[in-house]
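# step 3/5: fold
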Amino acid sequence: MKKLKLGIPKGSLQNSTIELFKRAGWNIKVGERSYFPSIDDEEIECSMCRAQEMSRYVENGTLDAGITGKDWILENDSQVVVVADLVYSKASMRPTRWVLAVAGDSPIKDIEDLEGKKVATELVNFTKRYFASQGVNVIVEFSWGATEAKVVSGLADAIVEVTETGTTLKAHGLKIIKELMISYPQLIANLRSWEDPWKREKIEQIALLLKGALQGHHMVGLKMNVAKENLEKVIRLLPSLNAPTVSPLHTQSWFAVETVVNVKTVRDLIPKLLKAGAEGIIEYPLHKVI
C-alpha cells in the first residue's frame, strides 16, 4: 500500500494542528516519547519535527508534505509547493508578525539608523536578506532565546522577533520600529511528491478538508420556522453562502428556513430575526464548509 509521509509540527503548532485535523476528519494520537504519531488513515504515515526544520525535510523528500510557518519556509529558502494557507482562530495558529524592535529610549528611529550595528534574531537568513535588500549593512547574530533581553542587556542594538500584539515587547521596554513580515501556517509539499498523481491527490484531499474545517470554524448553521407573512422580512436579514433554504412545513402558512452565517454575526442577528417573526431558532456548529 502506498503511504504519504506527513510532517506534524512539534511545539507551539502541535495541539492546534492535531485539533484542526480532527475537525477535518483525521484522529492523530501522539505518544509521550514518540516522534511517529498514529493516525486513523492507512494511507498516511506521520512524523513529528520542529516547525523550524519542517520545510527542509519536505524539500529533501524525507517528508512528502507537512505543516509549518511561512516564516521558516522563507528562513530556509526551501523549494517546496505551498498547497494551502492555514490561518486558524486558535492562538497558536493565528497570523504572527516578525518585527524590528529597539530599546524604548533608543535614538534609532528607522532601518537606516542601524547601519553597522548588531541585530539579534532566530530568523538569521531572512533578516540578512531583508537588510541587504534595503542596502543597510548590519551584523546579524543568532539568538538562542530570550531575544528581548539582548537589547536590554546591551548585547544587541536591535532584535527581529515574532509577536502577535507587541505586548510582550512593550513589557520588556522595547519599541517596534518596523514590521518585516506577516507569517501564518501553511501546508507544503515536496516538488517530486507533487508530481506523483497518487500523492498529489492525497495532499489535495488533506488541503480540501483542512480548509473546509477552517471555514467551518468561523460559521454556524441556523434553522428557524417563519410564518408566510414574515418570510420576506426574515430572508432579507439573512446573510448566506448562496441563498437560504426555504421549505414549506406541513401547515402551508409556515416555512422552515435554514442558512449558514458567520459566527460573529449571530449574537446581533438572532434578536433581529425574532423581531422579524422567526420562531424556534436553532443554532448549530459546523465541522466543515466546502
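# step 4/5: annotate
The first helix runs from residue 14 to 24.
# step 5/5: archive (pending)
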